[in-house]
Structures are given as structure tokens and as C-alpha cells.
Amino acid sequence: xxxxxxxxxxxxxxxxxxxxxxxxxxxxxxxxxxxxxxxxxxxxxxxxxxxxxxxxxxxxxxxxxxxxxxxxxxxxxxxxxxxxxxxxxxxxxxxxxxxxxxxxxxxxxxxxxxxxxxxxxxxxxxxxxxxxxxxxxxxxxxxxxxxxxxxxxxxxxxxxxxxxxxxxxxxxxxxxxxxxxxxxxxxxxxxxxxxxxxxxxxxxxxxxxxxxxxxxxxxxxxxxxxxxxxxxxxxxxxxxxxxxxxxxxxxxxxxxxxxxxxxxxxxxxxxxxxxxxxxxxxxxxxxxxxxxxxxxxxxxxxxxxxxxxxxxxxxxxxxxxxxxxxxxxxxxxxxxxxxxxxxxxxxxxxxxxxxxxxxxxxxxxxxxxxxxxxxxxxxxxxxxxxxxxxxxxxxxxxxxxxxxxxxxxxxxxxxxxxxxxxxxxxxxxxxxxxxxxxxxxxxxxxxxxxxxxxxxxxxxxxxxxxxxxxxxxxxxxxxxx
Length: 481
Ligand code: HEM
Prior knowledge:
Elements: H1 13-16, E1 23-31, H2 34-44, H3 51-66, E2 76-82, H4 84-89, H5 99-103, H6 105-112, E3 116-119, E4 122-125, E5 137-143, H7 146-159, E6 169-178, E7 201-202, E8 215-216, E9 243-252, H8 254-263, H9 273-285, H10 303-306, H11 334-338, H12 342-345, E10 359-360, E11 363-365, H13 371-376, E12 384-391, H14 398-406, E13 438-440, E14 450-452, E15 459-469, H15 472-479
Parallel strand pairs: 7-8
Antiparallel strand pairs: 1-5, 1-6, 2-5, 3-4, 9-12, 9-15, 10-12, 11-12, 13-14
The structure holds protoporphyrin IX containing FE.
């Protein structure tokens, strides 16, 4: 059936369209005075960016570019979201039917496998202290430059009187992300791999679907919309057109990652040591640094293919799991662990995994690796990914992908009724309580070999929270006075 048309004026702009950004600041806050907050929030709501505005803005950018004008149009787009603690603080007690959201990420961190300590039976992750405080909400501003984003943020802080007498919120922390410098690196994450290639298309919103890109029903991204899962309880009416945001503050140990690749090149006839290291990196991610999928081009990079949206997502791991064949792509490769395609969607299996899809909207943070860090093979400056993703269920989406797929060595073999260990996702896979993590199948000529990852993960979680991203109507009627 055709889904009902989406109200693009009611859905916040980042969820389906993605706020255009070179830089983005997440401002985490606590509500200190509820009554005053509701009044000030009413004045803030008109600055929240809608999906329709992002779509229009993108058209303007296209025209700007087609007229060969230089640079970005100055702009700053705004979004807002609330944690469960925030809803409670505001007296909103409706159940949004998501156990991960209700519990909060701090309490869920142990089961995500985040490192930490247990004292007197209470687990505490090794997070930055700010993320151990009660966070009520986040306002995030994305834009073309730090100047436009900071200007917008100052306006917003003034509306809420932040730091002044008469304030209604207090700042917990602000974190800025920036795309990496230079044309070469700008769309690449800090390990060097092109990111943001594969996201699902959403029916009723995306006009084109690229080969290999599945279109999912809007109900997998937005509450109160159709999915093929009728067993889900209806959300309260004000939550319709909202979505859940998973935020993770993920540090990346880049020199250590590079060193691991250098120390463990894949040995194959005709490959230099350096090429063997590059191949190992590609097999841990599932794509070459250029973005070319190894399931299509397993032994050498293909930057032309990588840059072609008609081909760079057009792979399925077709029947490989059935034949126990990891020669093209290890079962544990990051993109295969997080979206196993035909490993589950068949043929021959035909699980519907639309409920596992997430819309990724992260941005890099921190400086480039310095010469000293490179020489010492050791991280001295914090850098990584402000991981952000949307879905209509955190339990079915982010949490499931992290816990039941990335952190589960048996996956995806277990899903095919096979025994054996694919190993951990080397990028994000964590072992609850720590300990040895191995990856199977990194050598295409000998899929039975395991490699052992260093005890310290290359991606280190230092904070995060789960949020609900209400519709514009809900912001006006439920959150503002
Ligand atoms: C894809 C890196 C964290 C889920 C990718 C890609 C890269 C990457 C390079 C391939 C580009 C693309 O397909 O768009 C990273 C890094 C991370 C990280 C460096 C941490 C610092 C996460 C987390 C999750 C996740 C925490 C979810 C639990 C995904 C998904 C895809 C993906 C679903 C798309 C797979 C596909 O559709 O083929 N990631 N990622 N990633 N990642 Fe991550």
C-alpha cells in the first residue's frame, strides 16, 4: 500500500533530509525552571528547521552551484530533542514504548559493552563526567561555518537566558563536530574511510532509490506511521512525526588503528606489505578508503566505482553466507555486521530487517593526527565521531545493531543456523567486561584464520544519550507554554 503523504512542515529537518553541515554543535542542557522554560521555548520553536526548509535550502544550494558561484550559502539549521529524564522533568509521562529510551543510555552502557567499573554492584562507564549528569535535552545547530553556527547558538542561548539571571536552562556541555579539512578528506571519517554512503531511502520522501539502496516504510523512521509490524503499540498522538535520536560520543584511536594495520598486513602473492595493510583495513570496514565496496572489488581499490552512486552501494553478499564464503567480504566487516543485506534478507533467508535500519547523521570531531602522534603511534589529542542516528525504535535499531550484531561473535552465522564465530566488528564491536576479541576471515585466501584485536578498542565510547525528536506541532503544543 502507498503510505500517507508526509507532512514535511511538521517533521524536524535532520531526520529524513539531513541538515547540510560543515560544522555542527551539540548543546546539552538541563531544565532548571520548568514554567519559565515553557515560555522561553515558545519563542525558540520558530527557529527549529523543518524538513521542507532543508529540502528548499538544498535546492537553493544546487542553483548556487549551477551558477558556478563559490562557497556555501551562509546558514545555520536548528534541531531540538529531549531525553526521557527531560520529558519527566517537563511532566510528560506518556510511554513512548522504547525500553532503551526510557532507561537512558548511561544505564544501558554496560549492555552496550562500554568499558567501565562496577563498584558495590553499580556499573559506571568510563565516560566523560558531563555525560554522567542528568541531561534533559539537546539543541543542535549545523551550518556552513563556525561563525554562522556560533551566531545562531548565541541567539538561542540568549532566548533561554543561559548564564544570566532569569535563565530556564543550564548548559551541561557543548561539543562541536567538524568535517575534516581539505577536499580529499572532507567526507571521510578519521580512520580515513569515506562515510555517509549507505543510508536507507524512505518511501514518501526520497524520490530516487539508488541500486542496492532499499526503500523502507516511513514508520521505521517516524513514530505513528505505517510499518509492516502491526504488533507495535500506537504512540501517544503528540509523538506522531517524531523520531528517536541516538547520540554517541565516540573517540577514535587513529595512530593505534594505523599501527595495527601496518603490523598485520594480509600476505598474498603480488601484494606489497603496504597493500596488504590497506587490504586488511578494507576487510575490517567492508569498503576501501575510497568507499568502493570490497564485495564488488575484493582485491583492489576502484575509486571510479566508489564515486558512482549507481554502483557504490549495489552489492548484497548474495548467497555467500550460505556457502560459508568470506573470500569477498568477511562476515565481521563493519558494513556487513551493521547491515547484512542478503545474509538475512535472502534468498534463501527472508527475514525482514527494515526494522534494523538507521539513518546515520554523524560528524567528525577533533584535529587531524599530528606528526608526533604518527611517529609515536599513539593518540594524544581527542578525535572521533559524534555518532548520531535516527529510527522509530532504539531497541530495534541502534541497540540491536550494537549488541546483537557488532558485539556478537556468532553473528551472522547464527542467523543462518550455522555454528562458528565470525568474530567482532573490529570498528565498533565491544566485549562486555572486556577481554579478547578476534575477527575471522580477514585473509581472503584462508578464511579459517582469526586475527586478535588489541584489548583496547579502536573506538572508545565516552558518552551519549537517547533522545526523542518531537514534531514541530508537538514542540508547540506539548513543550511550549
Ligand atoms: C557504515 C565507519 C560507528 C552503523 C560505515 C562506513 C564507515 C563507517 C566507513 C561505510 C560508509 C557507508 O556505508 O556509508 C564508522 C566509524 C564508527 C562507526 C569510524 C565509529 C567511530 C557506527 C555505529 C553504528 C554504525 C556505532 C551502529 C551501531 C553503520 C551502518 C552503516 C555504517 C548501519 C551502513 C552499512 C550499510 O548500509 O552498508 N561506518 N562507523 N557505525 N555504519 Fe559505521
